[in-house]
Design goal:
This protein is about 75% helix and about 0% strand. It is mainly alpha-helical and about 180 residues long.
Length: about 180
């Protein structure tokens, strides 16, 4: 009888452990799915920004007396494979160059297509800020789960690694509010 009670107790403990493990594993999987979703949103917004700047090159060259290479950053990015982190930084440089061209060229300031592109770039900035915040919030939850005991045991068993934040650094501090419509 005593052996039966001990066996049942061990089985109950193992069942509780398995339930906890599965629950924790599923929490990780849920966060990983949300991280992937956030990365897709960021990627979509960055591609939209890239396309807008790429489209602006032809308009700028066709409607101004600029003969030099316009938005060289975008031209160089066409053939390179970059992470979203690097692409974001490069696009900020290109957007700054785009705004500098607009400020110094009166012919372009009134161009309807350039105004639309500039407006779309400003809208995409709002999107990228929101996507970056969403991504970083999920990464915070994921990394907390990764570091805390006992959930870190599941991370060790599953070989999960800490994820980095989408920081948006290497930029001027107030670039978010610098867009001109």
């Amino acid at each position: 009888m005593e052996l039966f009670v001990i066996s049942m107790l061990i089985i109950i403990i193992i069942c509780f452990f398995l339930i906890w493990y599965i629950s924790t594993y599923n929490r990780y999987q849920s966060l990983i799915i949300r991280i992937n979703e956030a990365e897709v949103n960021i990627d979509t917004t960055l591609r939209k920004r890239f396309d807008l700047l790429n489209k602006s090159i032809g308009i700028i060259k066709g409607n101004s007396d600029i003969k030099d290479e316009v938005l060289e950053i975008i031209v160089k990015l066409r053939s390179r494979k970059l992470t979203n982190f690097d692409l974001d930084r490069q696009l900020y440089e290109a957007i700054n160059e785009f705004h500098n061209i607009l400020e110094t060229n009166d012919e372009l300031k009134g161009n309807e297509n350039i105004i639309k592109i500039n407006h779309s770039l400003a809208e995409s900035e709002t999107e990228i800020v929101a996507s970056r915040k969403y991504y970083n919030d999920i990464i915070t939850n994921y990394n907390k789960l990764l570091k805390k005991f006992p959930t870190n045991l599941v991370a060790i068993i599953s070989k999960y690694k800490e994820k980095t934040y989408f920081d948006g650094k290497n930029l001027e501090d107030d670039i978010v509010n610098d867009f001109k419509l």
